[in-house]
Design a protein that fits this description.
CATH class: Alpha Beta
CATH topology: Peptide Deformylase
Shape: globular
């Protein structure tokens, strides 16, 4: 996955909300400040209901949410996370991923509006979701996408992406409409995803706990069985 920023640079670049931001710390400032929250799991109502539009900006509550989402995503070793995945029904997502060229893309988007590039060739890759821990299945996604929204202070955001980053934007924006990657799967792939989840969940959650402790964070508590009941 790559963004179109002209000629390739000789070394990887970090893009913060689409703008070069070198140097940039390995751990985002938000993750340093944030708390680790429990990630909701498939079947929980907040994941399957459209999220509410954010109407107030530059608030301590919104800043804390963004910080906590970055910290939670880091501990879960994810590349994107939507607010419903931490139990909050607001239209916010965060992302932190490295593309195929080694460039890093970091940011958050509030009230995103997704536009897929219908002219881009769809790409089929293994895809997972932090709300279905341990499960990865092949899924076709648009090869390009644009997200328009604002940051937590109400400043305009417009991000255009291809490849892996586009996949991330589509995945997270759809979360805010109550749609999971699960909803795009055939019955056979759903069964396979649940089988993987059942086999891998305990190890995945143990890994999240260990990484939280390593980062001197309080780990989130998870029930023995998925809270969503599936």
């Amino acid at each position: 996955m790559a963004w179109s920023f002209g000629r390739r640079r000789s070394r990887p670049v970090t893009y913060l909300l689409g703008e070069p931001a070198d140097p940039y710390p390995a751990q985002t400032p938000e993750a340093q400040r944030g708390r680790v929250l429990r990630i909701t799991e498939i079947g929980e109502p907040v994941l399957h209901t459209p999220a509410r539009t954010v109407e107030r900006f530059s608030t301590p509550e919104l800043a804390r949410l963004v910080d906590d989402m970055f910290a939670t995503m880091e501990v879960a070793e994810g590349v994107g996370l939507a607010a419903p995945q931490v139990g909050v029904d607001l239209r916010v997502f965060v992302y932190d991923l490295t593309d195929d060229h080694g460039d890093r893309h970091v940011g958050h988007v509030v009230n995103p509006v997704l536009e897929v590039d219908d002219d881009a060739v769809p790409e089929t890759e293994e895809e997972g979701c932090l709300s279905v821990p341990g499960a990865y299945v092949p899924l076709a996604r648009p090869g390009g996408a644009t997200v328009r929204g604002v940051d937590q202070h109400g400043g305009p955001v417009q991000l255009t992406a291809t490849g892996f980053l586009a996949r991330c934007f589509v995945h997270e924006a759809q979360h805010l409409d109550g749609t999971l990657y699960w909803d795009h799967l055939s019955p056979e792939l759903r069964a396979d995803a649940l089988r993987q989840r059942d086999e891998e969940r305990a190890d995945v959650l143990a890994g999240r706990r260990e990484l939280a402790i390593e980062l001197e964070k309080t780990p989130a508590d998870y029930p023995e069985r998925p809270a969503g009941g599936r």
